[in-house]
TrEMBL record:
Homodimer. Its main location: cytoplasm. S-adenosyl-L-methionine binds at G112, I132, G133, D134, Y135, V136, L137. This is tRNA (guanine-N(1)-)-methyltransferase. One of its GO terms (cellular component) is cytosol. Belongs to the RNA methyltransferase TrmD family.
Length: 226
């Protein structure tokens, strides 16, 4: 998989992709992530990429032309499965969307900034708009980092254990059950006996029951469409 990201702040994305699972996936050659600094595509000598909104009002707007130049250059090189704009008014990211996008070959992400991007970029280029939650961030970069992390960990070969992502919270619309590791006793609290029983069928049944119990308690909305 290849992910291209257009941003005014590439430095903000260097550290999330420079550590842990995403870094390992890049090193293993399972994903390529390319950051494109919007300022490199500015059309005037001041390297300007934002301007005042027509009609007035607070905040600046990312100009259409630099984004368009960058998009033209990238799409001339390859086809993208989706061109995604990170924005608080997009569809809310969930595990289903991450699963779906993890099957892509090439993705192009556009991070908004300030008040957002000129609407004509959205109308012309964008195939999908995604929000990471009902709150406003100062830019789309953290949203892009979240989206990439959620996608990359699902790519075959990224997690050590091939089946690990299948037991995540939200897969099957259930929260994950409680988990424990050594020691068996901690501050007087014991690991549930079933988990040390060695009886896999009982362990699976216990986990399923606890996952359902936790989901009912914390996120009954996940069970509503079952
Ligand atoms: N940009 C600003 N706020 C955002 C959000 N909640 N999700 C995605 N991109 C954003």
């Amino acid at each position: 998989m290849r992910i291209d990201i257009i941003t005014v702040l590439p430095e903000l994305l260097e550290s999330p992709f420079g550590a842990s699972i995403v870094k390992r996936a890049i090193e293993k050659g399972l994903v390529e992530i390319h950051l494109h600094a919007l300022r490199d595509y500015a059309t005037n000598k001041y390297k300007q990429v934002d301007d005042y909104p027509y009609g007035g009002g607070a905040g600046m707007v990312l100009m259409a032309e630099p984004i368009d130049r960058c998009m033209e250059a990238l799409t001339a090189e390859r086809d993208y499965d989706e061109i995604i704009y990170l924005t608080p008014d997009g569809e809310r990211l969930d595990q289903g969307i991450a699963n779906e996008l993890s099957l892509s070959g090439n993705l192009l992400l556009l991070c908004g900034h300030y008040k957002g991007v000129d609407q004509r970029i959205r109308d012309h280029w964008i195939t999908r708009e995604i929000s990471i939650g009902d709150y406003v961030l100062s830019g789309g970069e953290l949203g892009a980092a979240v989206l990439c992390d959620a996608i990359v960990r699902l790519l075959p070969g990224v997690l050590g254990n091939e089946t690990s992502a299948l037991t995540d919270t939200f897969q099957d619309n259930l929260l994950a059950p409680p988990i424990y590791t050594r020691p068996q006793e901690f501050k007087g609290m014991q690991v549930p006996e079933v988990l040390t029983s060695g009886h896999q069928a009982r362990i699976d049944a216990w986990r399923e029951e606890k996952a359902l119990e936790r989901t009912r308690e914390r996120r009954p909305d996940l069970l509503e469409n079952e």
